[in-house]
Specification:
With about 170 residues, the chain is an alpha+beta fold. About 35% of the residues lie in helices and about 30% in strands. It is built from five helices and eight strands; from the N terminus they run E-E-H-H-E-E-E-H-E-E-H-H-E. The strands form two sheets. It has a six-stranded antiparallel barrel. The chain is globular.
Length: about 170
């Protein structure tokens, strides 16, 4: 049985918050600019290795301004020459729109700094396969990540996934 608390959250009979409430809080945090921007300062200070390679800072070029822009994203899949990330804000994410306009990027991950990369937005079927693999490997994380993305995107069906690879020379 769930009950509504004074702040509008839902809790079960033990008083703990339900997964839906946690997802709503996560979505709110992901909409708080200073919280999502704080890891950029950590990466710029050369401390990106503290995230253990689980997160990547991506430098991309603003499609309107032409200026460098930065975003820190969770790495959801890694191969020898590829990193994949999901767009938690769906297709309306500014960093995703910027990479669509100009696929060149630089990556900071672990102890690597400013590594050139080319981005590619995966087709929906490939993105779904990547997300399914992530869900199998990290079921608990996926449950909350998916819930938070649903809150942010109003249930947008397709979650964009971007693959970063070394630039073709």
């Amino acid at each position: 049985m769930t009950e509504k608390t004074t702040d509008g959250a839902r809790s079960d009979a033990t008083g703990s918050e339900t997964p839906a409430t946690i997802d709503q809080w996560a979505a709110r945090l992901l909409q708080t600019r200073w919280i999502v921007r704080a890891p950029i300062l950590i990466f710029r200070a050369g401390l990106g290795w503290l995230f253990g390679g689980r997160f990547v800072m991506v430098e991309h070029i603003g499609r309107k301004s032409g200026e460098p822009r930065y975003v820190v994203l969770e790495v959801i899949e890694r191969e020898t020459n590829a990193l994949r990330v999901a767009s938690g804000h769906g297709s309306r994410a500014q960093w995703l729109k910027n990479l669509h306009a100009n696929p060149a990027a630089r990556l900071w991950v672990g102890r690597s700094k400013g590594v050139p990369a080319t981005s590619r937005i995966l087709p929906e079927a490939d993105a779904a396969a990547v997300l399914a693999r992530y869900a199998r490997v990290h079921p608990d994380a996926w449950e909350h990540l998916k819930g938070a993305m649903d809150e942010l995107n109003g249930g947008e069906v397709a979650i964009p996934v971007v693959e970063f690879t070394p630039p073709v020379r």
